[in-house]
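Need the bound structure for magnesium ion, inputs here:
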Amino acid sequence: MLEQSRSTRITLRCVALAYLALLLGIPVGLVLYRTFEHGVGAVWDSVTTPAAIHAFSLTLEIAAIAVPLNTVLGILTALVLVRGRIRGKAILEAIVDLPFAISPVVVGLALILVYGRIGWFGPWLADHGIAIIFSLPGMVLATVFVSLPFVAREVSPVLREIGDEQEQAAATLGASSWQTFWRVTLPAIRWGVAYGVVLTVARCIGEFGAVSVVSGKIAGQTETLTLLVEKRFTNFDLAGAYAASALLAIIALATLLAMTRLNPRKDH
Amino acid sequence: MITVENVDKHYGDFHALKGIDLEIESGSLTALLGPSGSGKSTLLRVIAGLEIPTSGRVILDGKDVTNLAPQQRGIGFVFQHYAAFKHMTVRDNVAFGLKVRKKPKTEIKDKVDELLRVVGLDGYQQRYPSQLSGGQRQRMALARALAIEPAVLLLDEPFGALDAKVRAELRTWLRRLHDEVHVTTVLVTHDQEEALDVADTIAVMDAGQIAQTGGPRELYDAPVSDFVMSFLGPVARLGEALVRPHDLELSVDARDGALEAQVVRVVHLGFEVRVELLLAQAGEGAEPVVAQITRAEEQALELSAGDIVWVRPVLAAA
Ligand SMILES: Nc1ncnc2c1ncn2[C@@H]1O[C@H](COP(=O)(O)OP(=O)(O)OP(=O)(O)O)[C@@H](O)[C@H]1O
Ligand SMILES: [Mg+2]
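Answer from helper R.:
Posting the output first, comments after.
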């Protein structure tokens, strides 16, 4: 390693801190400051209106479906991508990355084209009384789609790095593939999974574009927290918008903290 | 007993194993010896079930296991880089095979403690692999493989990642362990000294084929080819013939079948003396031939650099 002089080290640290403060600290701090500017009571009132409570629980509901689904799918995808002996891995890789490449608004429009009233399956769905667009299933679909890649992308490099010797050792010791996965592979990749889950949660609760297109923004029905923030903001209810934003930030922080509770053990 | 019958292994269009036939006696310690890329690991992994041969059969104790998964073969496998379960303690590593077999807890505990004593890791139960030295990790891996009482123990260059001193210690230790446990063992190595030191039987591999199988003495004294001969120890080339350096006879006068040579250097190594010779018939820049003689012989000849001597293989070489 190069010897860094004291002054270089301090300068580097200041630059990094200033950068973080500018991009992250100040905006988030301001939101929190503005939120609590007029006291906790006002905030409490604005996050306990029926619309806010509904938006809050809807957001959690969507995340509660999308996150486990994408976690399981993401781990499976990573296993196939890294360990699988199949053709067409490049295509699968590209498909996994698709949600990163496509704008969420386009995702929303695509879902409407497929499931909407005039879409491919629209008439059939309407005949059977199934509502996807402008209701929960559509919003879940949109959220699942935009948050699909995170777990797979976080887990793949970890899988690649640990190699398959531990798994082979487990096989020679008599473990079935299922036992090997639970006892050897999953513990070895749990950091990648945890990080992927944090990112997925953040994306699910923060998703705006795709959900906004397919939800129809019906207050008290299909309005998530981000949609509520936007509505309050455009209606000049700034205090209300800040309060709802703070709530979003708190959910994100809570997931992060929950994940760090998975203590790292001495296994490096 | 392990029987490998006419096994071929292709990787795409690369022919890694070519018609391998091999019999390994029950209770023996057999070394697969060969240069890098000769197919030793591939053969071992085929026996373990970690690779499926393209054709041929693998028979363990009379049972055709060619299409059985590694789980069903009753083997223990030790990897060059330990393949320790990094997130488990030493105890849990060794207990792994017993746990997946759902053995009773007390039985597992007793067995693990006993094995750790056998491999000299008693007291290390609660450590993680990252807190062990390389040699300790490999002994843990060995205990883990032995815990399931395998019919066959397969070791792929188990000491390859360790330094020379630890290697020598561990192989002596492995030999003693084998004499106690008597499990049929196959050891892959590219180190001839290691093979000669620990194995009852050595199978020398060359480019995907078995060049020769036999006891250490037999291979050393009666190699079937120049390849086997040069792989198993030092050799000197006299014209067309390959000879062991200690099987060369020097004289100051011309004798039957002897070649003329000039002494380049005389090196005294205690009891033995190494004499480097340049054959008269050898061209410019040729490698010197090394002869190994006793001090008494050297004193009788009174050799020094520049002398002309006559060299031939000892007639009763075998
Ligand atoms: N998965 C694979 N795909 C393609 N070729 C392979 C594969 N595994 C091994 N080979 C090739 O097969 C040959 C034999 O490999 P193997 O690992 O058995 O050699 P080895 O004798 O164990 O050598 P070393 O002493 O270096 O470990 C090598 O030329 C190697 O490149
Ligand atoms: Mg090898």
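Comments: Residues B 11, 14, 16, 34, 36-42, 190 surround adenosine-5'-triphosphate (ligand 1) (CB under 6 Å). The interface with chain B takes residues 165-166, 168-176, 179, 183-184, 187-188, 265-268 of chain A (CB under 8 Å).
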